Amino acid sequence: MQTVDFDRVSFSSGDVVLDLGCGEGRHVISAFLEADVHSIGVDLSYQDLVTTRSKFDDFAETEAQTAANDDDRSFALAQTNALYLPFADNTFDTVICSEVLEHIPDYQAVIIEIERVLKPGGQFVASVPRYWPEWICWAFSDEYHANEGGHLRIFNAGKLRGQIEQAGFYFKARHWAHALHSPYWWLQCMFWRSKDQSRLVKLYQRFLEWDILDRPRFTRWLETLLNPLMGKSVVMYFQKGAIE
Questions:
Q1: Span 49-69, mean pLDDT?
Q2: The whole model's pTM is what?
Q3: β-pairing, 169-177 with 118-129?
């Protein structure tokens, strides 16, 4: 399940791409498979990095072997803190930070750190939970967000955009994603204490798994139609520095 639309991201051969807070690897692996780039994923969770490596090895063995002798292509993972990235200034052509900022107390410091490691003219893609679908989750369940590693805030996308622009970025585009996932999380929150036994939650989860694996045309059309109304995530695309 990919939140960032790579059709909106311009990759050139040999670009260095950072997936900041890569989690279990959906974007760092996808970037590697998308183009001849050096794809680097970092996360605070060592276990998530182990999972990412396992996923990469499972379905990208051929690509990894090809990349071994290719100066324009590589894949790497590292455990690090988003507030103190171990990279020099102006290192990356693209930085992706998807569903991460809502977990970090000093998220504005992370934005400043992203600006530091991104090359002038580089691309920055940020996604966070959308305000009103997230608000419904919070209204149904405190446990959904009030736990270790949970969501610390509900973002106003317009305010977040302004803060990113103030850090030296030019806003390019925005869209919403994962409308079909919003009801799933609402159901989870409604039945939080019994969600593992809830037949309704399990049925909807099976529907989502089927949709992700089979990607039938009808559900792809339905989600595209519903994303502006109830997309679970808002995704924003920026460029470091002014557009010439």
A1: 73
A2: 0.93
A3: unpaired
From the number of C-beta atoms within 10 Å of its C-beta (0-12, 13-18, 19+), residue 98 rates as buried
Question: Which strands sit side by side in the sheet containing 38-43, from one edge to the other?
Answer: 74-79, 38-43, 16-20, 92-98, 118-129, 233-240, 169-177
Q: Check if the beta carbon of residue 163 is closer than 8 Å to that of residue 108.
A: yes
The CA–CA distances, whole Å, from 33 to 9, 66, 94, 218 equal 14, 11, 15, 26
Instruction: Dig out the tokens for 218 from the structure.
Output: 């009808």
Please report, for residues 93, 115, 171, the alpha-carbon distance to residue 2 in angstroms, rounded to integers and kept in the order given: 20, 23, 21
Q: CA-CA distance, 60 to 54, in Å (whole number)?
A: 10
- Cα separation, 228 vs 160, in Å, equals 18
- Contacts of 175 by beta carbon, 8 Å cutoff, 6+ apart: 5, 8, 227, 231, 234, 235
Give residue 72's pLDDT band: very low, low, confident or very high (50, 70, 90).
confident
Choose the CATH number for 6-130+151-178+231-240 among 3.40.50.150, 2.30.110.10, 3.60.40.10, 3.20.20.10: 3.40.50.150
Tokens coding 201: 């939650």
Number of Cβ within a 10 Å radius of residue 203: 10
**Among 95, 125, 131, which Cα is nearest to 4's?**
125
Nearest residue to 188 (alpha-carbon basis) of 148, 153, 140:
140
| Encoded tokens for 170 | 């030019």
